Amino acid sequence: MALDLSMEVLVVDDYKTMIRIIRNLLKQLGFENIDDAADGAEALGKLKEKAYGLIISDWNMEPMTGYELLKEVRSDDILGKTPFIMVTAESKTENVIAAKKAGVNNYIVKPFNAATLQAKINAVFGE
Amino acid sequence: MKFNNALAKHSDEILVLLREAKEKDIRLGDVMSMAEVMMNSMHGFFESLDMSVYKEMREIASYIEKAKGDISNLQANKLKGEHIPVAGRELDEVVAATERATDTIMESAEKIMAADTSDFTSYQTEVNNAVMDIFEACSFQDITGQRINKVVGTLKHIEDRVARFANATGVEDSEGAQSAAETADLKRKNDLILHGPQSDTEAVIQDDIDAMFK
Q1: Is residue B104 situated within a structural domain?
Q2: Does residue B91 sit within a domain?
Q3: Distance from C-alpha of A17 to C-alpha of B98, rounded to nearest angstrom
Q4: Do residues B142 and B164 lie in contact, with contact meaning Cβ atoms separated by under 8 Å?
Q5: Structural domain count of chain B
Q6: Phi and psi dihedrals of B178, rounded to 5?
Q7: Same structural domain for residues B164 and B120?
Q8: pLDDT tens for residues A7-25?
Q9: Quick one: B110 and B56 in the same domain?
Q10: Containing structural domain, residue A87
Q11: Which of B41, B50, B68, B195 is the most exposed place for a label (fewest CB within 10 A)?
Q12: Does B211 contact chain A (CB < 8 Å)?
């Protein structure tokens, strides 16, 4: 899967400052089309309306968490293969194992920097 | 006869207390008051009993009196009505101040990123102004630090009083003391693996996570 900087990226976080940070970092990395959602349920609605090339999601949100969103995406026939990166403060081994088992493509612990985000995106797209 | 008359009189008082308490939660203080009324009502009865039993009852009365003192020293109403709400307001202020500062810093950084570089002098002025805004916004740390210290002080105050109360009364933690809402919240956190941020010693580091994805 090649990295296409014009693809739609969906950033999911209930903290608007974090969305702003990730948006700015993605813009610095060259991404042009960035959309956002405040929780898993809103994200799922958007995913069913438009095709996204990458989901970057927080874990701890209400009512639907990023973990639940990941499982919903992976169990959906159309969305199932969408690359999914978890960006979260949930930093227990148990969380990483559960996310990996649920099919996450990469996992970033907060706080993080642009280089880490770029490295994980590159790893997901095999760059 | 004397006992029966006293009991009848005090039973009426207990009935009034119970009727008043019917529509609301019965507080420990009410239970203590009812126990006192009962003790008073049995005063005549004690007089006719063996002195050793009377002594036992006096000790129970003293224990109840001491427990009332311990509860009073806990100052639960002051904690609930004053200390905890003030601490909550301080934390709200901390959240609001950090949000305002983050907003200002990000806005300034975005201005720098978007600044026109074609005219060096105006670019330099714009960058300098934005950097000054960032410096000013960072002053939030001093005030939020002081607010958090006040909250820590309140928590310490509550901890001291609760510990003193627990020691004085010899109470032990009971199982199943959680409310239905607390139980539901705990279940959700367990099911969805929600632990929140960990301390540096407990958190798994990014390098270890990366190793799991190789």
Answers
A1: yes
A2: yes
A3: 11
A4: no
A5: 2
A6: -75, 150
A7: yes
A8: 999 999 999 989 999 999 9
A9: no
A10: 39-56+75-91
A11: B50
A12: no
Categorize the per-residue pLDDT at B3 as very low, low, confident or very high, splitting at 50, 70 and 90: very low
| B22, B46, B74 - which closes a domain | B74
One-letter amino acid identity for A108? I
Predicted pLDDT at B135: 92
The packing angle between helices B120-137 and B84-114, to 10°, is 170
Cβ contact B106–A92 (<8 Å): no
Residue B70 is which amino acid? D
Of B74, B108, B136, the residue that ends a domain is B74
B144 is a domain residue:
yes
Q: Which domain holds residue B154?
A: 75-170
Number of domains in chain A: 1
DSSP state of A44: H
Under an 8 A CB cutoff, do A112 and B194 touch? no
What's the pLDDT tens digit per position in B6-22?
556 666 777 776 777 66
When mean pLDDT is compared across A70-74, A103-107, B175-179, B203-207, the lowest value belongs to B175-179
Residues in chain A closer than 8 A to B191 (CB atoms): none
Distance from CA of residue B56 to its chain's centroid? 37
Give the one of A90, A100, A112 whose C-beta lies nearest to B195's C-beta. Answer: A90
Residue B15: per-residue pLDDT? 74
Q: How far apart are CA B153 and CA A122, in angstroms?
A: 47
Q: What is the pLDDT of residues A66-108, one digit of tens each?
A: 999 999 999 999 999 999 999 999 989 999 999 999 999 999 9
The closest CB to that of A92, out of B106, B109, B195, belongs to: B195
B45 and B105 in a single domain? The answer is no
Which of these, A30, A31, A27, lies nearest to A54 by C-alpha position? A31
β-strands A84-88, A54-57: how paired? parallel
Beta bridge pairs of residue A86: A57, A107
ipTM: 0.86
The candidate with the shortest Cα–Cα distance to A56, out of A2, A101, A1, A116, is A116
- DSSP code of residue A57: E
Which residues from chain A sit within 8 angstroms of residue B197, using beta carbons? 89, 91, 110
